[in-house]
Amino acid sequence: MTSSRGEIEARIAALDYWDGAVEMEPLGGGITNHNFLVSCNGRRYVARIGDDIPEHLVLRSNELAASRAAADAGLSPAVLHAEPGILVLDYIDAPPLSPEQVREPEMVARILPLIRKCHREVPNHLRGPVVMFWVFHVMRDYTSRLLEEGSRHAARLTELKRQAAVLEEAVGPIEVVFGHNDLLAANFLDAGDRLWLIDWDYAGFNSPLFDLGGVASNNEFTEAAERDMLESYFETPLTDALWRRYAAMKCASLLRETEWSMISEIHSEVEFDYAAYTAENLARYERAFADFKTL
C-alpha cells in the first residue's frame, strides 16, 4: 500500500525513541527507501522507512544486522533505534559523492581501503543469520518474476538470461567476502577527514569482484582506472585471467542494475523515472558485454 508523505512523517513522529518534539524534512537521492532528516532537541538523525521488498530479495532484518556490524567496524553511522519498517541512524553532516568525484584517482585511493574494510572486517561484527548476495541467483529470480508479471521487457529476457549464464561461467570459483553490493556514488559520504559508507539494503556475502565491478560501472571508470583499481585492491600485478573474471562480474553488476530497474518499473512506490533508468543501464550493459566478448 502506498503511504503519503504525511502518513510517513506521522509514523516517524510517533516513535517512542524521541524525547521531545520533532521536525523533519525528506532527504533526496534514495530510489529504494524513504529517508528523512529528523531534528529533536538540537540533535539530528536519519530515519529510513522501508519494509521488506520481496521482489528485490531485501530483508530489513539483514539490513539491520549489516548496518550494526558496519557501524561497529567504523564504516557507517550508529544505529540508534530499530523497529519493523523503521531505522533511526546517527546523522552524518557530510555530502554524498558524485560519480565525477568517485572517478578521481585521489578519491579511488580513499575508497579502496573502505571497500577492503567492508570485505574483511564487517564479518567480525555480524550477529545472527545473514545472506549470500549472489548476483546470478538474483537475476534468475528477477527473470522469473518479470516473465510471470508480464514485464514490457519480456521479449529481451531469454537472451539476457543466456548471457548471464555465460558471465557466471566466466566468473568461475570465487573468494567469499562481505559485500556492500550497492556502491553508487551517493552511498559514500565525504566528511573531509574520512569517508562513510551507508545504505546496507543489499549487503551480503559475495565475491569482491562484484563491489569492484559495481563501483567502476556505477561511476564509469576508464579501463586504465579499472586496471589500477584491481592492482591496488589485490596488491599484485593484474593477470589476463583476473581481468576477464572481473569484466564478467562488471557486466553482471550492470545487468543486475538493469533488471532491478525493470522490476522497479512494476513495483516501486518511489517517484523516479525507472523506465529511463532501465534504458540507461541496459545500454551500458550492452556496451560492456560487447567488450567482454572480445577478451
UniProtKB/TrEMBL annotation:
<dbReference type="InterPro" id="IPR011009">
    <property type="entry name" value="Kinase-like_dom_sf"/>
</dbReference>
<protein>
    <submittedName>
        <fullName>Phosphotransferase</fullName>
    </submittedName>
</protein>
<dbReference type="Pfam" id="PF01633">
    <property type="entry name" value="Choline_kinase"/>
</dbReference>
